[in-house]
Structure to design on (1439 residues):
C-alpha cells in the first residue's frame, strides 16, 4: 500500500541555483532510463543546462538534534518574517560557499540569528559521482580549488558555454510542520533573479526549489517524500527495482548527502554520440564478419564495459558497438543518452570495466559527431499518401545551419525532376522542405533530415526522422457485365480499402452507346446505376462495348482508375424461311435461311425436334455471315431423308441473350435412285416376244407412289401391277415386240416414282436389245435369252434382300457367270450406313460410333474384301465419304479409321489393280481425315499399326516439328519429317495443327509407270497442316532406303491431278540429296511424298565408274593447280626476256591470264567440292558465281589468243599498237565474263534457280548452266576452226624453195602446233558435248575428265616449257656465265637460228600461206626488218 509521509516534525531541503553571470545555456536532447524503487521501469524526457555545477548542502547529523529550530519559532511567526529569515539564511549559505571555494581552513560553520539557532552545517558539492564533503587541506588545497574555479570560468568564456551555475542544498529543520506550507508559499512568490552581492550584480540567485520533505510520526518513525518533479535515487531505495510511481517516498531517514533528484525534463530529444576507441591488439579478419564468434565476443565484452562506464552519467541510455576497423583494432560505437553527457569523464571507468586483455588505450577515446534526435521537428503531408501524390516533408530545427541533408532509408536525396529541396533560416530557426512529385511505391520508408553544424571540437547533427508509407489506390471494381436494353437497371461499383472521402470520384464512359448513370457514394464504394431502353440501343450497335472508367484522384495528384466494360445487347428479331415451303421429297435438296436484324452474334445453333427427339445439327452443315442489315445463317441440306423431318429452331446468341425462330419441315418419302432395284439391268428381248421389266424398292414405307415406266423416252401406258416380293415392293411392266425391223438395235427403259407432293425420281436405265429368234443360242427363265457372246446383267438379289452391285452373264451356248460385283451384305450395310451418316443432321456426333463398327466389320470381312474388288472399292468409297467429317482426335476414333486403312492396304495387289484410282482415293481420304481432326486438349494421339502410323502436334509455340516413323516389322524401315523452327515462323504455323502419316507398304498398290524403271524405295509420308493463316514454307523429309542397291534418287509427291485425276508422281518443288543409307528431300508444299530410285544408276553407268571419274577429277585438278602456279612463277622469271616484241608480249599476256583465270577457277572448284555440305546458301551462291566467272574468263582469254593468232596469220603487214591490242584483249577476257555472270546471278538468284540444291554450281534443271555451256562451246568451236586453218596452212611449202629440212619437219610442226593450241585454246572442252546426251559412253566421260582436269599440266608442258625461247631464258637465268653464253649464241647462224628470223623455214611457210612466191626479199633494210618481225612473231604465237 502507499506509504504515508505525514508527521509532526519536519525537515525541508531546498536547492538554490546561484549564477555569477546571468547567461543562457544550450540544451541538448537525450533520453534517460532508470530503475524505480519497486522494480518498475520508467522512461521520460528531460533537459539540463550545459554548465559546471557545484552544490552545497547543510545536513544535520540526525533529525532530533535539530529540534530547537522548530521550538523557538513555534506558532506565532509571520510568513513574511520567516521568508526574510530564510532569504538571509540562503544568502549566508552562498557566502559560506564562496568561502569554501576561496579555501577557508574551516570545514564546519556555526551561525545564529536571534533565537533562530542553526545547528552545525556540512556543505557538500555535487559532482558526477554524487555529493562529497569538502575537505580542508590548508593552502595547497585552497590554491588548487582556486585554479579549478578560474579554469572553469575561462572554459566557459572560450567555449561560449553557459556561466558557472552552482546549486546549493539547504536543509531546514523545524518542529512545527505547519511551517512547510508557509515557507513553500513564500518561496513560490519570489521574483528571480535575486541579487545577493551589491558590488557584483551579476552574482544572483536564479531560483529556489523545494525538493525533499521529511516528517516524523507519532510512532517516532520518519517518512521522507519528494516534491513534484523529483524522485529518490537508486541508493535511497531498499528495492531499486521498484516502479517509478513508488519512488517519491521512503520510510526512513536517508543517508547523509542523499536527497531527491530532479527528474529530467521531457524535451523529446535523444543524443547519439558517435565515438571510437583503439585497442592495442592486432586486427583480425574475423572481426569483419558480424556473425563470427570473435566478433560477437568482442561486441559483448565492449558493450558491457561501455554500459558500466557510462551509466554513472545522468541520462545515459545505452552503448552499441557498430563495427571494428583496422589500425591496431579500432572500435566504432554509439552512445545514446537522454541529455548531453560528458562522455570523456567516464573513459577511465570504461577502461576499468574492460578486461585488460583487450589493451584499451585510454587516451584514444574520440567523438566524431553527435546526432540530436527530437529537437528537430518533421512534418509530412498529405496523410495518407498514395502513389502519384505530391508529398511535402518539412523540417524545423533550432540549429542555425542551413546545411541540410535529406535521405531515404540511408540513401541521400538530391534534387531532380521530381525532387525539390528548399532550405532557409529565419526567426531563430532553420527550416528545410523536401517536395516529392508523383511519388512512387518504392519510395516508401524512413526519411530523415539532418542539419549539420561544424565546430572545432565535433560535428553536431540535428536529426529528425519520419516514416511514410506509399500505398496504391486499390480499386476493386465490379465485373464486366452484359446489359440488355429492356429497361432493367444494373449497377457498377468501384470500392477501396479506405474511406472514399479521401478521393474525388469521376465516372467516364467511352463507346458507341454512351448511356450515363447515377453516382451514389458510400463509406468506401462508389456505385454507378445504369438503365437502358431499347430506343437507346440501335440494332446495328447491339453487342458493342462501352467502357466505364471509375477514376479516383486526390487533391495532391494521386490518380487511379479501373475500367468496367458494359456490353449492350438488344434482343434480336429473328425470322426463318425455307426454300421448300415447308415440305420436300426425300432425296431432294433444300436450304433454310435464318435472318436476324442484329448483326452481332457469338454463335448460332440449329436444332430439329421430331416428337420428343431433339437433334443438334452439326455446324459443318450451315454457314453464318454478317450482313448490312443484320446477320444470316443458311442451312443447306444436300439430300433430305426422314431424319430431316421436324420443327427447325434457329437461335442467335449474344452472350447470355438468345433470340430464336422456328419453322416446320416435312420430308415426304421417295426412293433414292440407287435404291431402286432394276431387273434386268441389261437384257436381250426375243423378237417377236415379250420382256418383263421390274423396279423394286424396300418394303415398309407408307407412301403410295405413282410408278410409270419410260421406254425409249416414251411413257408406257401399261403398268402390269404392284406386288410384294419378300422385303421388296415391286412394280412390273411387260414389253411386247412383234415388229422385228429394229432387231439388233439398243434401246433403254426406266421407271419413275412420284410421291403425293409431286416429287419424282427416275431409276437408272435398263439396257435392252432386240434379237431375232434365229440368233438365240442361250435361253433361261431366270436369266433370259441371248446370242452367242451376248451379256446380260442382273441385280444382286438373294432371298429377301438386295445388295449393291450386279452379276454379268455371258452366253457361251449356255449362260456363264462372267463377273460378280455384288457386295457382301455387311459391306453393303456399311455403305448404306455411310451414305445415311454423311447426309444426316449430326454426322460429327455419330461418326465415332460408325468408325468403330467400320473397323470391326472390315476386319471380319477381310477375306471377302481381299477377293472382291467391289467390296474393296466400296470400303475405299466409304473412307472417302466420311473423311471430310470433322471429328475429335480421340485415340480410339483415330485408331479405328487407320485400322480400316491398314486392313485394306493388306489387300492383294491384283484386287487393287481391278479398282480404278483406288490407291489415289485412299491417299486422299487419309489426308482429308488428318485435316479434319480436331485436337483434344491440344494434342493429337499417335497411332502405330502394321502398315500405317500417324503422329501429330498442336503448335502451341514456335519450335521444331520433328517426327520419326519406324516400322520394326520391315527391318526397322524408318523415315523422318522435319519443319524447323525457322520454317514454322516463316510459314506462321504457330497455333496450327500438323499431322503426318507414314505408309510402309503402299508401293504394292500405287500404280507404277512401266515405261520408267523407277521404284518406290522408301516410306510414303503425307503431312497436312491445318492453320487459320499460313505462308509458304519448306518441309524436310528423310527416307531410309529399302533397297540400297538402287541409286539416282528422286523426291516426288503424289499429284492427284495427273493422268485424268487418277494421280501420279511429280517432283515439282522437291529437291533430293542422296546419302549412303537414306535420301533427304526438301519440298515447298505438302501432300504425300516418297522417293523414287532407278536400278540403272546415274546415266546407266556403274557407281564404281563414277567414283573413278571423281578420283581422276580431284587428282587432275590438284596437279593442274600446281602446274598453273609453276606457269606463273616461270612467266615472272623470264618475262623481260620473252616479251621484247609486240607479238610475243601479247602472246604471253594471253597465256598468263589464261593461267591465272584457270587457276582461280580450279581453286574455287576444289573449295566447292570439299566444303559443299558445310556452305550456307549465300556462301554457296558466291562460290558458284566466282567459279562461273573465272571459267568464263579462261575461255574468253583463250578466244583472245585464238583471234590474235588468226589476225597475225591473215594480216601480216597490218600493225596494231600494243596498247590497243591489250585493251581489246582485257575487255574481251574480263569484260564479257563479268557481264554474263552478273546477269545470270541477277536473274536466277531471286527465283532460287541459280545453283543446284545439292551442289554449289550452276543449276542444270533451270538451264542456268547454259550461261557457261553456251559461251564455252561457242568459243571452243571458233578456236577449233582457227586451229584447223593454222594446221592446214603450216605444211604448205614455199614454191621457190623446197628445203629438205622443211619436208622432214613438216609432221613435227603439225604435231607441235596441235599440242600447243589444244590446251591453250581449250579444245579439250569439246568432248563435253558428247557427255550431255543420255546414254553416252563412259569413255567420253573419262576422256573429258582426264583432258580438262589435267589442262593446267598440258599448258605447262606444251604452252610454256616446249617454247625454245622460254627454255633458253630459263637456262640463261640458271647459267653462271650468262654473258659468255649470250655472246656465243649471237654469233651462231644456220639451222639453229631462231624460228623468228626471216630465214626460218616457218617464216617461208607463212609467206607462201599468204601468196608470196619464192623468197621474201626486201629492197631496204627497214622493210626487211619489218617483214621479218611480222612473219616471225606470227609463228611465235605457236611456239
Amino acid at each position: 500500500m502507499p506509504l504515508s509521509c505525514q508527521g509532526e516534525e519536519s525537515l525541508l531541503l531546498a536547492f538554490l541555483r546561484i549564477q555569477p553571470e546571468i547567461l543562457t545555456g544550450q540544451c541538448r536532447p537525450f533520453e534517460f532510463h532508470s530503475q524505480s524503487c519497486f522494480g518498475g521501469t520508467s522512461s521520460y524526457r528531460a533537459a539540463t543546462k550545459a554548465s559546471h555545477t557545484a552544490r552545497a548542502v547543510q545536513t544535520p547529523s540526525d533529525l532530533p538534534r535539530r529540534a530547537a529550530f522548530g521550538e523557538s519559532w513555534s506558532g506565532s511567526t509571520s510568513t513574511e518574517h520567516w521568508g526574510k529569515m530564510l532569504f538571509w539564511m540562503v544568502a549566508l549559505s552562498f557566502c559560506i560557499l564562496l568561502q569554501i571555494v576561496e579555501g577557508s581552513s574551516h570545514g564546519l560553520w556555526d551561525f545564529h540569528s536571534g533565537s533562530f539557532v542553526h545547528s552545525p552545517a556540512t556543505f557538500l558539492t555535487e559532482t558526477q559521482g554524487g555529493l562529497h564533503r569538502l575537505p580542508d587541506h590548508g593552502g595547497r588545497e585552497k590554491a588548487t580549488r582556486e585554479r579549478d574555479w578560474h579554469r572553469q570560468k575561462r572554459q566557459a568564456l572560450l567555449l561560449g558555454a553557459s556561466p558557472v551555475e552552482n546549486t546549493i542544498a539547504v536543509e531546514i529543520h523545524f518542529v512545527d510542520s505547519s511551517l512547510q506550507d508557509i515557507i513553500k508559499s513564500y518561496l513560490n512568490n519570489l521574483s528571480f533573479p535575486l541579487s545577493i552581492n551589491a558590488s557584483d550584480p551579476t552574482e544572483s540567485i536564479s531560483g529556489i526549489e523545494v525538493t525533499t520533505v521529511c516528517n516524523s510520526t507519532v510512532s517516532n518513525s520518519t517518512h521522507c517524500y519528494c516534491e513534484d518533479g523529483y524522485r529518490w535515487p537508486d541508493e535511497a531505495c531498499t528495492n531499486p527495482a521498484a516502479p517509478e510511481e513508488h519512488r517519491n517516498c521512503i520510510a526512513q531517514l536517508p543517508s547523509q548527502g542523499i536527497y531527491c533528484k530532479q527528474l529530467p525534463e521531457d524535451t523529446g530529444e535523444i543524443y547519439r554520440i558517435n565515438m571510437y576507441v583503439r585497442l592495442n591488439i592486432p586486427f583480425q579478419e574475423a572481426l569483419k564478419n558480424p556473425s563470427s564468434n570473435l566478433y560477437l565476443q568482442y561486441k559483448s565484452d565492449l558493450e558491457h564495459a561501455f554500459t558500466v562506464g557510462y551509466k554513472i552519467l545522468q541520462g545515459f541510455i545505452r552503448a552499441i558497438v557498430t563495427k571494428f576497423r583496422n589500425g591496431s583494432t579500432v572500435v566504432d560505437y554509439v552512445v545514446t543518452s537522454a541529455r548531453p553527457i560528458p562522455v570523456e569523464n567516464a573513459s577511465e571507468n570504461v577502461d576499468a570495466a574492460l578486461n585488460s586483455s583487450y589493451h584499451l588505450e585510454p587516451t584514444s577515446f574520440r567523438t566524431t559527431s553527435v546526432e540530436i534526435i527530437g529537437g528537430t521537428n518533421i512534418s509530412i503531408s498529405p496523410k495518407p499518401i498514395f502513389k502519384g501524390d505530391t508529398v511535402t516533408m518539412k523540417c524545423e530545427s533550432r540549429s542555425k545551419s542551413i546545411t541540410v541533408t535529406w535521405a531515404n532509408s540511408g540513401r541521400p536525396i538530391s534534387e531532380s525532376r521530381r525532387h525539390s529541396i528548399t532550405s532557409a533560416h529565419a526567426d531563430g530557426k532553420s527550416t528545410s522542405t523536401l517536395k516529392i512529385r508523383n511519388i512512387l511505391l518504392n519510395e516508401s520508408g524512413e526519411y530523415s533530415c539532418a542539419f549539420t553544424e561544424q565546430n572545432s571540437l565535433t560535428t553536431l547533427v540535428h536529426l529528425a526522422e519520419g516514416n511514410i508509407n506509399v500505398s496504391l489506390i486499390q480499386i476493386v471494381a465490379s465485373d464486366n457485365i452484359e446489359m440488355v436494353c429492356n429497361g432493367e437497371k444494373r449497377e457498377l461499383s468501384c470500392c477501396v480499402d479506405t474511406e472514399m472521402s479521401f478521393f474525388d470520384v469521376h465516372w467516364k464512359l467511352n463507346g458507341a452507346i454512351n448511356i450515363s448513370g447515377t453516382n451514389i457514394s458510400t463509406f468506401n464504394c462508389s456505385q454507378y446505376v445504369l438503365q437502358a431502353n431499347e430506343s437507346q440501343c440501335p440494332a446495328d450497335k447491339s453487342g458493342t462495348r462501352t467502357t466505364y472508367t471509375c477514376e479516383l484522384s486526390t487533391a495532391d495528384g494521386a490518380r487511379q482508375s479501373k475500367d468496367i466494360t458494359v456490353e449492350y445487347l438488344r434482343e434480336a428479331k429473328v425470322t426463318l424461311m425455307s426454300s421448300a415451303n415447308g415440305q420436300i421429297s426425300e432425296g431432294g435438296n433444300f436450304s433454310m435461311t435464318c435472318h436476324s436484324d442484329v448483326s452481332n452474334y457469338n454463335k448460332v445453333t440449329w436444332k430439329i425436334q421430331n416428337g420428343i427427339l431433339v437433334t443438334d445439327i452439326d455446324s459443318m452443315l450451315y454457314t453464318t455471315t454478317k450482313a448490312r442489315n443484320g446477320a444470316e445463317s443458311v442451312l443447306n441440306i444436300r439430300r433430305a431423308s426422314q431424319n430431316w423431318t421436324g420443327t427447325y429452331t434457329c437461335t442467335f446468341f449474344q452472350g447470355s441473350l438468345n433470340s430464336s425462330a422456328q419453322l416446320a419441315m416435312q420430308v415426304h418419302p421417295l426412293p433414292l435412285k440407287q435404291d431402286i432395284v432394276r431387273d434386268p439391268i441389261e437384257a436381250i428381248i426375243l423378237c417377236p416376244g415379250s420382256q418383263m421389266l421390274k423396279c423394286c424398292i424396300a418394303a415398309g414405307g407408307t407412301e403410295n407412289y405413282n410408278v410409270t415406266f419410260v421406254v425409249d423416252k416414251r411413257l408406257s401406258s401399261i403398268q402390269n401391277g404392284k406386288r410384294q416380293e419378300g422385303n421388296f415392293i415391286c412394280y412390273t411392266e411387260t414389253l411386247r415386240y412383234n415388229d422385228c425391223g429394229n432387231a439388233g438395235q439398243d434401246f433403254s427403259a426406266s421407271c419413275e416414282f412420284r410421291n403425293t407432293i409431286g416429287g419424282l425420281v427416275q431409276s437408272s436405265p435398263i439396257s435392252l436389245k432386240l434379237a431375232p429368234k434365229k440368233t438365240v443360242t442361250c435361253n433361261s427363265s431366270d436369266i433370259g435369252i441371248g446370242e452367242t457372246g451376248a451379256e446380260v446383267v442382273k441385280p444382286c438379289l438373294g432371298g429377301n434382300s438386295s445388295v449393291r452391285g450386279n452379276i454379268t452373264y455371258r452366253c457361251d451356248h449356255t449362260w456363264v457367270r462372267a463377273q460378280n460385283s455384288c457386295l457382301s451384305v455387311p459391306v453393303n450395310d456399311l455403305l448404306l450406313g455411310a451414305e445415311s451418316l454423311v447426309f444426316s443432321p449430326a454426322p460429327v456426333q455419330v461418326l465415332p460410333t460408325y468408325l468403330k463398327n467400320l473397323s470391326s466389320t472390315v476386319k471380319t470381312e477381310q477375306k471377302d474384301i481381299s477377293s472382291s474388288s467391289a467390296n474393296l472399292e466400296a470400303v475405299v468409297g466409304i473412307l472417302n465419304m466420311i473423311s471430310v467429317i470433322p471429328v475429335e482426335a480421340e485415340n480410339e476414333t483415330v485408331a479405328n479409321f487407320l485400322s480400316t486403312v491398314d486392313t485394306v492396304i493388306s489387300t492383294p495387289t491384283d484386287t487393287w489393280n481391278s479398282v480404278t484410282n483406288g490407291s489415289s482415293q485412299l491417299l486422299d481420304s487419309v489426308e482429308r481425315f488428318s485435316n479434319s481432326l480436331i485436337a483434344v486438349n491440344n494434342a493429337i494421339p499417335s497411332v502405330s499399326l502394321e502398315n500405317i502410323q500417324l503422329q501429330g502436334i498442336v503448335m502451341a509455340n514456335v519450335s521444331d516439328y520433328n517426327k520419326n516413323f519406324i516400322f520394326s516389322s520391315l527391318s526397322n524401315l524408318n523415315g523422318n519429317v522435319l519443319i524447323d523452327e525457322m520454317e514454322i515462323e516463316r510459314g506462321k504455323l504457330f497455333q496450327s495443327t500438323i499431322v503426318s502419316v507414314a505408309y510402309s507398304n503402299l508401293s504394292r498398290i500405287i500404280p507404277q509407270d512401266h515405261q520408267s524403271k523407277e521404284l518406290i524405295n522408301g516410306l510414303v509420308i503425307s503431312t497436312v497442316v491445318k492453320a487459320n493463316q499460313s505462308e509458304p514454307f519448306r518441309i524436310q523429309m528423310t527416307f531410309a532406303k529399302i533397297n540400297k542397291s538402287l541409286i539416282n534418287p528422286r523426291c516426288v509427291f503424289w499429284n492427284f491431278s495427273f493422268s485424268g485425276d487418277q494421280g501420279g508422281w511429280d517432283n515439282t518443288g522437291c529437291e533430293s540429296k542422296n546419302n549412303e543409307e537414306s535420301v533427304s528431300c526438301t519440298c515447298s508444299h505438302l501432300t504425300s511424298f516418297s522417293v523414287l530410285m532407278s536400278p540403272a544408276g546415274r546415266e546407266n553407268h556403274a557407281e564404281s565408274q563414277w567414283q573413278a571419274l571423281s578420283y581422276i577429277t580431284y587428282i587432275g585438278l590438284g596437279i593442274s593447280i600446281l602446274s598453273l602456279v609453276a606457269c606463273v612463277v616461270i612467266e615472272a622469271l623470264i618475262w623481260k626476256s620473252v616479251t621484247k616484241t609486240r607479238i610475243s608480249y601479247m602472246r604471253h599476256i594471253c597465256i598468263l591470264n589464261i593461267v591465272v583465270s584457270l587457276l582461280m577457277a580450279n581453286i574455287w572448284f576444289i573449295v566447292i567440292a570439299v566444303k559443299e555440305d558445310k556452305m550456307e546458301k549465300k556462301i554457296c551462291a558466291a562460290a558458284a558465281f566466282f567459279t562461273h566467272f573465272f571459267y568464263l574468263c579462261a575461255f574468253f582469254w583463250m578466244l583472245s589468243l585464238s583471234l590474235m593468232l588468226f589476225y597475225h596469220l591473215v594480216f601480216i603487214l597490218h600493225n596494231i599498237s600494243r596498247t590497243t591490242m591489250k585493251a581489246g584483249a582485257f575487255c574481251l577476257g574480263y569484260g564479257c565474263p563479268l557481264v554474263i555472270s552478273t546477269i545470270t546471278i541477277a536473274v536466277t538468284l531471286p527465283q532460287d534457280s541459280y545453283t543446284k540444291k545439292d551442289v554449289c554450281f550452276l543449276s542444270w534443271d533451270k538451264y542456268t548452266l547454259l550461261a557457261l555451256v553456251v559461251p564455252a562451246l561457242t568459243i571452243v568451236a571458233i578456236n577449233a576452226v582457227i586451229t584447223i586453218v593454222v594446221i592446214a596452212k603450216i605444211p604448205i611449202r614455199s614454191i621457190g624453195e623446197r628445203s629438205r629440212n622443211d619436208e622432214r619437219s613438216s609432221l613435227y610442226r603439225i604435231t607441235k602446233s596441235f599440242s600447243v593450241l589444244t590446251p591453250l585454246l581449250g579444245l579439250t572442252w569439246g568432248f563435253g558435248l558428247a557427255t550431255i546426251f543420255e546414254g553416252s559412253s563412259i569413255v567420253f566421260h573419262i576422256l573429258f575428265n582426264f583432258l580438262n582436269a589435267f589442262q593446267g599440266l598440258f599448258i605447262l608442258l606444251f604452252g610454256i616449257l616446249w617454247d625454245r625461247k622460254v627454255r633458253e631464258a630459263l637456262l640463261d637465268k640458271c647459267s653462271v656465265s650468262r654473258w659468255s653464253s649470250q655472246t656465243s649464241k649471237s654469233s651462231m647462224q644456220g639451222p639453229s637460228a631462231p624460228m623468228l628470223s626471216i630465214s626460218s623455214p616457218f617464216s617461208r611457210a607463212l609467206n607462201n600461206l599468204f601468196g608470196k612466191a619464192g623468197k621474201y626479199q626486201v629492197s631496204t633494210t627497214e622493210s626487211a626488218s619489218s617483214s621479218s618481225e611480222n612473219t616471225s612473231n606470227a609463228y611465235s604465237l605457236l611456239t
Q: What stands out?
A: The first strand starts at residue 9 and ends at 19. Residues 1103-1138 form the longest helix (36 residues).
